[in-house]
Amino acid sequence: MNIKFLLTTSFIAATLVSTAQDASKTFAITGDGNQDFMWMNIRQVDITTGKTVKDIYQREKTAFVMMDADTKTQSMAHRRPTETMVAAAAYDKYQNKLFFTPMRIGELRWLDLNAKGDAQRYYTVTSTLLNTYSSFTDEANNFTRMVIAADGNGYALTNDASRLIKFTTGKKVTITDLGAVIDDEANKSVSIKNKCTSWGGDMIADAYNKLYIISANRYVFSLDIDTRVARQIGYISGLPANYTTNGAAVDDDGNVVVCSANTFAGYYKFSLKDFVATKIESSDLLYNASDMANGNLLYQKEADAARTFADFKPIVPVLTNEAHIFPNPVTNSEFRVHFEGQQAGRYNVTITDLSGKPLVNNVVTVNAKTQIETVTLNRSFAKGVYMVKVTDAGNRFIFTERIVVQ
Question: What domains sit in the chain, N to C, each tagged with a CATH number?
Answer without folding.
Answer: 14-297 (2.120.10.30), 304-405 (2.60.40.1930)
